[in-house]
Amino acid sequence: MVSSSNGLSELYSILSMCLSNESNQRINAEQALQLKKQSEVSFPVNLIHIATSQPTDIAIRQLSLVTLKSYVTYSWSSTNFKFTGPETPENIKTAVKNSLLPLLADPLSKIRVQTAQVISKIATTDFPESWPNLLEDLIVKNLKNGNQFQIHGSMRCLADLINCDLSEDQIMAIAPTLLPELQRIFGDHKNNEPSVRQKAVVIFEEIIKALYNMKETHKSISKNYVQPLLTNWFPVFFNCLQDTNDEVNNMSVKIQVIQTLLTIRKTFRREFSKEDAKKFFEVIYQKLVQTSLTRVEQSIDDVLDSDGEITNTDNFISTLLDFILVFFEEKSIKNFFFTNSGNLVHLLEIFIHLTKVDDVQLDIWMENVDEFLNEENELSFNFFLRKKAYEVYCEFMQEFGVENLLPVLEDAINKALWDADQKKHTDKNCHHLFQRWKVHEAVMYLLAEVSEEVIETQAIKPHLFDLNSFFEKVVLVDAQLSGYPFLQGRAFSFSSLYAGFLQPDTLTNFITFVVQMLMEEKLTKNKIPKILKCLLIKSLSKFIIEVFGNNTSNLLVVQGNLRHLTKDILEIFLEFCIESSGLREGFDDEVSVERLSCCIEGLRVSSGMNKEITAMFEKDFSKFIVSAWAKYIDDVFISEMLLDFFESLTKNELVFKNLEESFITSVLPLLDIGVQILGNSETFKGEKTFMFCGVVCPVENLENMFSNGQFFLESLLNKNYEGILNLKDTTVIPPKSGLDYLVLFLGKILDPNLEENSAFFVGDVITKLILKSGGTLNNYLPDLLKAVSFRLSNAKIPSLIQNLIMVFAHLIAKEQYDLEIIINFLYELKLFNDSYANGLDMLIKIWSENQSFFFGFFDIKVSLVALTKLYGKADPRLRQIFVKGDLKLSNDLKIKTRSRARQLPDEFEMISFPGKVIKLLIENYQINQQVAMNTVKSNTNGKNHFESKLDSEDELTFDSEEEGWEDDDDFTSKLSSKNELFLKNFQMNDVGNFNYESEDSQENTFKDKKDKENAKDPLFTLDLKVCFTNSV
């Protein structure tokens, strides 16, 4: 019974009311609980008393521990960053800690788990200084000499501590004592529950991760620690996996063992010998074979462990597949399959078996087609074994080569189909028909993934896979099975992927049949199953894209055969688009973005089948695009598809002449339309569009419009800047020019009150405007730069910071304006931000701290050039600015656990700006040289980049051991001649030009050279060595 003390009784009553179903009573109780926390010093001790009282209702006991955990977070220690107070006295802390450890032996698992979480929370602040005996009590008293409950509670606590709180050094200190106990507990399956044995493996895995984190600083760790560990643990892991007891409870242990093996493979690949890899692979492969054959599709038993993790047969098989997937690339594993084609056939049969749709999936998909579409498009986060098996199958085909596997794939398919047919002789209840269609659907599902490779082989090596026979005996038959809508839909979907293989007559018949089915539903109102309709629409879209996207002789014949169906096809796609987007007037359609995306692309392609017929639908298409665009403005994917459709319509001269007028008058926030109109005009014809943007943008606070508007303006600037200058709006007083509207729009985008993602690329637009303007922007430039500075001073997202800094970088690097004027302007600019003295102080600090994170070859080069010019200016105002330098070493002698490290932010030495510039240049040079050497080394060894990276993952480091500069006000003048001579003579062109032929430099250069303006810019080929020499 709970103590009769008034304080305890009152607290017990409050906790009981906190669990009440009546909301007012619950709210009052929670307020009373908060008041007790603030006013009673003994509050945590009373909570412990209630938690330890076993006759008390378990829900009350659990709530007391949850409340105690919350109390520890906010009131235990003032060092906790969430601390609100008052702080717990030391004597109360001691009493609580002394009571918690015995509670780890409670008979109820839920109490032990909650207790472990409270102990971990306290250890975050108290361990090791204020709780030095914690680990000894957990390991020596509980693990070595405790009962089953103590062992489980301590294991749960140790897992939390090792995962969150203990440093690598602390883990290594307890490992010699802890590991033998873990191995003893794991090996004793008679006296320890599976959950306890699983926790032993969890802790072992955390120790492996800790060893990996220490690998760089302790070079001998692999030889002295890891290898002996694996030698001791691998045999017990192997015995565990060999165990024939595959009950669900025992599966959790095996799942954890496999996950730990995968961690070892990832972290200590060289120590995981080929012999061990082959040994484990064979036993896991056999386990996969056994478990897959005994898996029951209709019912899957779930077991929920104390951590809330679900264990069932599907999870177990999924983990087995993960292991097999990782080890495919091993040569010994490949030999396991290629030396015995029977193993290959067997594995492919398993893939077919595991990808059969189960009843749970089928019920979900028939009820909600969107779930099916998400699964098909790999957008779903739901776990189904079918999805996992499909992913491993795809990797398997890629790793071994589709062409190499086609003969055995055909054997596996024929065997699976034959087995499904044979069951009809033994199944009197016709259940074989139900299973047979699932096999057929799974086979087509898997063959769809390799459609391109299969079609290619048909032209040169048709004997590898008899596709004609498969279509004749399976696909054409299943396409007519109206009683199985999912299978029928899959047959048409499969056929659309193999459209390039089909003969013209067969292909025409497929498309005609699909159109007839969909038109019949439209005319007769006889609804067909949603999942079948969706698959038919997807199939028709793919058929049309394939037929009208290629001009081979066979497809030209099909194009001619389908001309008479153009009107029906356009009607089908348009009707389905309107229905899926919820735009039908008078109908309560189920809105589905997933289904909408299925048919917009088909509508786009089919609109090019016949220009005259398409022109008949111009008003319907315009209305749909406008309405859908307005509704899905926040959906980037749908918006882009609608843009593509609109663009295709503009290429039809019978339609284009009506588009600008109808769209500009109908659409307010969609500025991207101007881009499409300009793309089809040789000269500037967007006066209405631009004036419309200028009028709307200043008054409408629409962030999506601003985001799209940046691309629109950049297109206008590229197309005809003079056209913007010549525009005059005489409808307002005083009249406004195009430049007035342009600057006004940019000012709105730079408003610090807007979300940062609405201004990601505004810096690019402003830079382009400045470069194109010559002197025409002089009157506007100060205000623009002021707006950029204010926005930059509050920016958080790195890409936005880089984009805004590049405005100043281009101004400085290209010397379009005198550098002294720019420095003066920034120095005199006052910001509403106490962190910076002025605009110059802000720009230099943010620039210096973020330069190392810049990306893009051209941006990096322009930025380095600009920094070099600022360095060469030797302005005393720049020397007086100090920025973050090297990380400051802490003088705190306390052991820095991971929890304490999170609470205490890093501190940095301060260095003058000129010194920081030189450090940035040297840092770039060293990194680039290191990458260059590794690239040359890998090329010399005759290995590709990926192989080299795998071989050198333990050795590849980027050294940065140069000493930091002194913090000196007169740093530039005192800079040693040795360092200056080094900077002048080293290959500065390597810093900005990346002349060595590394893969990264080639990729970056290739990307930037696609931008013709950047490629023509003199800075693109500037030798930074010359630039630096001239500056100093």
Automatic annotation (TrEMBL):
Is Nucleus a UniProt keyword of this protein?
yes
Q: Which InterPro entries match?
A: ARM-like, ARM-type_fold, Importin-beta_N
Q: Name one GO molecular function term.
A: small GTPase binding
Q: Where are the transmembrane segments?
A: none
Region of interest (Disordered), ranges: 993-1012
Compartment(s) where it occurs, according to its Swiss-Prot or TrEMBL record:
Nucleus
A single BP term in Gene Ontology:
protein import into nucleus
Going by the UniProt record, its keywords in alphabetical order are: Nucleus, Transport
Segments forming domain Importin N-terminal: 29-106
- The primary site where this protein sits is nucleus
Protein name per UniProt: Importin N-terminal domain-containing protein
